[in-house]
Amino acid sequence: FELMQFNCTACHDRDGMGGVGRFRRPYFETVVHVDIGDEGRFPPTLTGVGRKLVPAWFAGVLNGKSRIREHLTIRMPQYSAATSKDLSTSIIAEDTSGKNPAAESAVFPHGADAERIVIGRELMDAGCVQCHAFNGEYLPGTVGVDLVDLPRRIHPAWFREFLEDPGALKPRTRMPTFFPGGRSPNHELLDGRMDLQIEAMWAYLRDLPKQPLPQKIVDARNQNYELQPIDRPIVIRTFMPVAGTHAIAVGFPQGVHFAYDAEGVFPAQIWRHRFLDAEGTWFVRFAPPADPLGDHVATLPSGSPVTLSAAGAEVLADGWPDADAAGLRFLGYRLDENGVPEMLSQVGTFRIVDRMEPAEDGSMMRTLTVTEPAPQPSDDLNTRESVRLWLRPAHGAGLKRLSPTTVETAAGLRVSLLNVETVDLTEHQQF
Fold first, then answer.
1. In 10 A of CB 279, how many CB atoms?
2. CA separation for the pair 337, 232 (Å, rounded)
3. Going by C-beta distance under 8 Å and a sequence separation of 6 or more, which residues neighbour residue 82?
């Protein structure tokens, strides 16, 4: 009754009741849409959860203090400390029939000596490391929860039972069975005994913060995935905090780089010196967006620099539109003979080529080329609509004019127009 009272079954199932409804399933996703199946994007089952979770951790989950599924975009409500304790206590009592869980010494009677911990680390390296993080470190492609502090979250008896047969406790789990038929594939360790090997794994996890990481992670940390443009520019599509999930990062041998937002259709950031680390882009299915590695990072004014209005308009009555409202479409990019990308877009009948590359003085040179297809013999010139093309290379509060053709943004970014005599700085702080 309490599960329904707090609406837990709207997202979680328990003993076949509740869970995410069929029409709400598309709204449950993972960060950056990483594919780890339904188990990774739906809230976990509450069946038997009272036997699984340690009381303090269980209450922490309910009051928002305990969280390990960073890949989930959905978030559950946070309950008061009193409600969290009462609800978790009720579920634990129901699942354990009021009995105390087996003590660790009863489940794993051989203790955690140094040799057993070393063997546990070796066993982790044989399988678990392929999917799980260890104390914040992981292999490329890893998505599973971090195993650090696992003994603080999970009862030892549930841990042993789960490793013996993952599918019995979590039907349709992606967790593989490492002891098929109760036999270990690692025959040379602890006589191949499943019970002793699971005990060794628990011993290692219990002492994980003080122990070396699994060897495969140690080896991976020695790999270097930093991209270093040497002879030609490097172009990589990735996720970035400012340029977004449609980012195109471009690195130049001159040590000046930029990131382009292909969804918003504008360059979003520029920076100097080191370019980008590609490990997350190439290997990690659940990874934070890639930050520029260098310094002097500057966020550029957002929005397209080009838009249209009626031919006779002296001002944009509704303000400067975003890409969607302006009808601006990103058409991709092309590389010139030197490998410099040119971003292609279209607004109305105008084609725009947006090119950025380092100048000799170390600044970033941006060239916008706007063309309109020549009229075709079949065109009716009497009905062809006349429009006015607007250019806005910089905007924002606090623009300062430094010269007739140069302004500085509030963030200290200087923007200059070349081959023009003067420009207007409007009352709306647009240049």
1. 16
2. 10
3. none
Q: Which of 361, 358, 356, 363 is nearest to 254 (CA)?
A: 358
Strand partners, 307: 390
Q: Which residues of 130-153 are buried (b: 16+ CB within 10 A; e: fewer)?
A: ebbbbeebbbeebbbebbbebbeb
Residues in a beta bridge with 184: none
pLDDT attached to residue 212: 94
pLDDT of residue 312: 63
Residue 82, classed as helix, strand or coil, is helix
Kindly list the structural domains of the chain, giving each domain's residue range(s) and its CATH number in brackets, ordered by start.
2-96 (no CATH), 111-221 (1.10.760.10), 234-392 (no CATH), 393-431 (no CATH)
pTM value surpassing 0.70:
no
- What residues of the chain score a pLDDT lower than 70? 31-36, 141-143, 283-287, 310-318, 373-385, 419-431
**How many angstroms separate the Cα of 364 from the Cα of each of 267, 271, 333, 418?**
11, 10, 18, 13
Give 199: exposed, middle or buried? Use CB within 10 Å, 0-12, 13-18, 19+: buried
Q: What is the pLDDT of residue 383?
A: 45
Instruction: Please give the structure tokens belonging to residue 241.
Output: 């905090």
CB-based contact 364:355 (threshold 8 Å): no
CA distance 359 to 365: 6
CA distances from 398 to 315, 318, 408, 414 (A): 21, 21, 8, 12
Q: What is the pLDDT of residue 381?
A: 47
